[in-house]
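Write out this protein's structure.
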Amino acid sequence: MEFEDGLVPAIIDDVLYQPGGLPLLQYALSELFETREGLTLTHAGYEQIGGAVGALGKRAEELYQELNDLDKQQCRQMFLRLATIGEGSDGTRRVVKQSELMAAALRPESLEEIIETFSLYRLLSLDTNPETRSPTVEVAHEAILGEWKRLKTWLNESRVDIRLQQQLAGYVQEWEQSDGDESFLLRGSRLEQFEGWRETSQLSLTPTENEFLDASVHLRAQKESEEIERQEREQHLQKRVRLGLQALAIVMFIATIVSGTMTIRANRFSLD
């Protein structure tokens, strides 16, 4: 296999300062190999794949366009969970349990096929958590987050959704680790924030995430009901005390009148 003159330096320049340069180089060469002319890798072929970095976005978009409408939605949901957003950044890769992606899927069996396809083209990396041995998924190259224009748009449009979903995932994890201790549920303004967000967010939640929010809402309703009952008991007690005091005042008033009358009669009797 041969390279056209000047092609090797051009490729090296493109990947030299990229995060994960070596895997990116391997990916670019494998894509470039598919465009070879006989035994020669050419500048024209390199431009065709979009260059070392552009090849990632080009291939990702091609795979995306082959999906039906439902699977395009699932693809979007998946990639939004596979990135974490920092201030002013395109996002960074995030390792996610495959079970989490499946739980949030509209149709898990077809999402599994999407994951297999993107991993086959080395756009996703599949691994296993060393502690739990559960399957994990990760974006294979950091550059995909910035070079796949569609994904970059998704991330920019969903910054708030991504941050809140990952905050929620942290709360859910703590709640599960506490065996469902209600003290780990959301309360007050934080619950109101996530409750409103769930109504408007375009990011699908897992059943466990929904269960956590539902439990938080239920606890709030329970506490509000208990507070209403407490206030009603307090009002009832205050009413009884008030009526008792009124009755006591009447008795004392009558007693005073009777006492005064008896005093007057006693004085008259003594005069007589």
